[in-house]
Design a protein that fits this description.
The chain has 194 residues and is mainly beta. It has no helices and 11 strands.
């Protein structure tokens, strides 16, 4: 069993000129390696997000989910990865309510929705502690989002890693692309093996 915590800083630049940045929520993951077949490892896990992030970038919500994942080692330096899962996430909606005869007021509500996701990618060992990552992912809920990302992972120690990535997301329901980046200096993972 492995437990990992992630926190990172994100900046988003949308094609409509709307730019925003801030801290994401703290994600706590638990995963378990279930089976190993020669060069292939299959596992699964679950996660929760603790709502400490910035609402400006769509965080500050309690979310949770579960996933299955597989990795296949092609060579000493190249590994293929795939994952699929389900996520329950909070979203904010504003509803107008009548107050009295003619007065209206806005009421903020947090609701839960469900999304399914699939992803696949490649992990390339560049040096002893440095790994390059490439991933394609898709989310399916009321909006269909597909994206691609490139990034890197640097192991400071066996339990602390710095990560950074940049990618493009495309929202099919609104037909616009959003450029997003995760600044690796502010993202770290702590892995504890039990």
């Amino acid at each position: 069993m492995e437990v990992q915590g992630d926190i990172y800083h994100s900046s988003y630049s949308h094609d409509d000129g709307y730019d925003r940045c801030g801290w994401a929520d703290f994600f706590l993951y638990g995963r378990h390696q279930c089976m190993t077949f020669e060069n292939t490892v299959v596992g699964g896990g679950a996660y929760v997000s603790l709502p400490i992030g910035s609402e400006d970038i769509g965080y500050s919500y309690f979310n949770y989910g579960a996933y299955g994942a597989a990795r296949h080692k092609l060579s000493e330096k190249v590994t293929l990865a795939a994952n699929a899962g389900v996520k329950r996430y909070q979203t904010t909606v504003w509803e107008m309510k009548m107050k009295g005869d003619q007065l209206y007021e806005w009421e903020k509500k947090k609701l839960y929705e469900t999304a399914f996701h699939v992803g696949g990618g490649t992990i390339v060992s560049v040096r002893d502690k440095l790994t390059a990552l490439a991933e394609i992912l898709a989310y399916f809920h009321e909006k269909k989002i597909i994206g691609a990302a490139l990034g890197g992972d640097y192991g400071i120690s066996s339990k602390v890693h710095l990560r950074g990535s940049a990618g493009v997301l495309h929202n099919y329901s609104e037909s616009h692309a959003a450029l997003w980046t995760n600044v690796g200096l502010f993202q770290f993972g702590v892995r504890v093996t039990f």
